[in-house]
């Protein structure tokens, strides 16, 4: 404070011959130069000539007023600088840096400091709520975020929903995640976490419906497919246990056992279970398909073809059986034989993505590149994360001489592959962290 006042007083005392910067003051022309003195004289009444003196006084006053204003501004500026608290932006930046490094405890403190300095800052308030949620302090996070009720719910509800889910308070998690999904229906993390919360709360049917709704628009999403498989596996085990206790020799017991093993990709054991079911009920719809599907996944195409054809005799409108027969023919180089099956599969189920893919392969083999591109564009529009479709598009464009488009599609395919590998690794890590975290006691009052 003292240094500021010193600079002000020294500025105010600056001699007229020099500027406040210390540089010589430039000469003023004519009347305010030395010549004005020669024009001053005294009249009979002892007064100076009014014209020249008034000019001099006026200009001197302006100069003094300017110096005074500058001194006052300098004083006020220094005084204000001395009492202004540290910038909330600095605290906010430090909090964001800590949060990005995973130091949520210290980040929460810095966000709280930024919010204290700037109580109306939505960034600081969101930061407080977000980091407290990461620490599992859900109620404190809710209190911090409550003043932001006028903000978009997709900024707030996922934070609270994920917090309650991680603390195993699934009812509260579901309540917040449902609001989050309403606000942002295309948010993948929200939809999948909501499905997981449903199944953790024992609400399997709602979990399946939630994840299937997401998969209808994103059929190749690895996270959603993974959790649907796990839920079905859990459900199947419960049903299987009850059915086995009631009637262990019923063919449905063997079929359900096969379904469960197939989800685990234990195809050899699944095949044995399905074959036991077939012995008990040779004409039951779906059993020949199940056996054929397992052979198809095991790449035993002759055996698969035989069983799938038997299924079509029982049910000619089985879209997946038609697709697999057509796909087997395409893969064996019998394109002409395979195309009618694929046409039928797509008429029965136009959204069957794998049938579109197989159709594109057949068209590429027939050098019908433009038709193949149409099928592949359908796939990439249906699911932009389908890396195989982008790779096939790159191949089709190369055959058509469209090298720039081919390079672009190849780059997209490569990036999607890398992203998918990273997502699967993150999923495993997240599941392990949640399983290792102790359950929190349920909170009594719903929001």
Name the descriptors:
447 residues; mainly alpha; 22 helices; 74% helix; 0% strand; flat
Task: Give a summary of the structure in a few sentences.
With 447 residues, the protein is an all-alpha fold. The protein contains 22 helices and no strands. Helix 9 packs antiparallel against helix 10 and helix 17 (319-331) packs parallel to helix 19 (353-365).
Description:
The protein is mainly α and 447 residues long. Among the domains are: 54 residues; 65 residues, Alpha Horseshoe (Serine Threonine Protein Phosphatase 5, Tetratricopeptide repeat). It is built from 22 helices and no strands. Helix 4 packs parallel to helix 6, helix 6 packs antiparallel against helix 7 and helix 7 runs antiparallel to helix 8. The longest helix has 34 residues. The protein is flat. 30% of the residues are buried.
Topology:
Blueprint: H1 2-12, H2 35-38, H3 50-83, H4 88-100, H5 104-117, H6 122-134, H7 138-145, H8 153-166, H9 170-183, H10 188-200, H11 204-217, H12 222-246, H13 251-263, H14 267-280, H15 287-297, H16 301-314, H17 319-331, H18 335-348, H19 353-365, H20 369-382, H21 387-399, H22 403-436
**How would you classify the helix and strand content by structural class?**
mainly alpha
- Note the overall shape: flat
Share of helical residues: over 70%
Estimate the strand proportion: under 5%
CATH architecture of the domain at 87-151: Alpha Horseshoe
Q: What is the radius of gyration?
A: 39 Å
How many strands, which pairing sense, and closed or not: the largest β-sheet?
none
H/E topology pattern:
HHHHHHHHHHHHHHHHHHHHHH
How many beta-strand elements?
Answer: 0
At the fourth level of CATH, the homologous superfamily of the domain at 87-151 is Tetratricopeptide repeat domain
CATH topology category name of the domain at 87-151: Serine Threonine Protein Phosphatase 5, Tetratricopeptide repeat
Identify the CATH class of the domain at 87-151.
Answer: Mainly Alpha
Distance between the termini: 51 Å
Summed over residues and divided by their number, the pLDDT gives a mean of 78
Number of helices: 22
The oligomeric state of the chains shown is single chain
Ranges where pLDDT stays below 50 over 5 or more residues in a row are: 1-85, 442-446
């Amino acid at each position: 404070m003292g240094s500021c006042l010193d600079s002000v007083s020294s500025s105010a005392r600056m001699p007229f011959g020099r500027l406040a910067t210390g540089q010589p003051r430039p000469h003023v022309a004519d009347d305010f130069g030395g010549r004005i003195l020669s024009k001053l004289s005294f009249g009979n009444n002892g007064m100076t000539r009014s014209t020249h003196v008034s000019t001099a006084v006026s200009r001197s006053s302006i100069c003094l007023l300017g110096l005074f204003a500058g001194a006052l501004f300098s004083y006020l500026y220094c005084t204000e600088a001395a009492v202004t608290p540290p910038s909330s932006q600095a605290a906010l930046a430090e909090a964001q840096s800590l949060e990005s490094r995973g130091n949520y405890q210290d980040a929460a403190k810095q966000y709280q400091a930024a919010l204290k300095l700037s109580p109306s800052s939505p960034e600081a308030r969101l930061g407080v709520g977000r980091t407290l949620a990461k620490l599992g302090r859900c109620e404190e996070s809710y209190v911090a975020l409550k003043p932001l009720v006028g903000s978009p719910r997709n900024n707030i509800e996922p934070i609270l929903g994920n917090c309650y889910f991680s603390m195993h308070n699934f009812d509260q998690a579901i309540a917040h995640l449902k609001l989050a999904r309403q606000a942002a229906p295309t948010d993948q993390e929200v939809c999948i976490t909501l499905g997981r919360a449903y199944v953790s709360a024992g609400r399997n049917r709602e979990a399946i419906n939630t994840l299937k709704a997401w998969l209808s628009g994103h059929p190749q999403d690895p996270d959603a497919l993974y959790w649907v498989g796990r839920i079905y596996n859990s459900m199947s085990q419960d049903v299987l246990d009850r059915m086995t206790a009631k009637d262990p020799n019923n063919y449905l017991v063997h079929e359900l056992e096969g379904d469960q093993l197939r989800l685990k990709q234990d195809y050899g054991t699944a095949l044995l279970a399905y074959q036991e079911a077939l012995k008990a009920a040779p004409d039951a719809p779906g059993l020949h398909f199940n056996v054929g599907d397992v052979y198809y996944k095991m790449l035993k195409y002759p055996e698969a073809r035989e069983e799938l054809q038997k299924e079509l005799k029982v049910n000619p409108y089985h879209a997946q059986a038609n697709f697999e027969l057509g796909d087997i023919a395409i893969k064996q180089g019998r394109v002409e034989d395979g195309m009618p099956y694929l046409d039928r599969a797509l008429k029965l189920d136009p959204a069957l993505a794998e049938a579109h893919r197989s159709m594109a392969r057949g068209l590429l083999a027939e050098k019908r590149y433009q038709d193949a591109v149409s099928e592949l564009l359908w796939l990439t529009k249906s699911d932009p994360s389908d890396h195989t479709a982008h790779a096939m598009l790159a191949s089709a464009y190369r055959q058509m001489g469209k090298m720039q488009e081919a390079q672009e599609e190849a780059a997209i395919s490569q990036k999607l592959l890398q992203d998918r590998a990273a997502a699967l690794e993150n999923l495993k890590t997240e599941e392990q962290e949640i399983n290792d975290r102790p359950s929190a006691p349920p909170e009594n009052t719903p929001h």
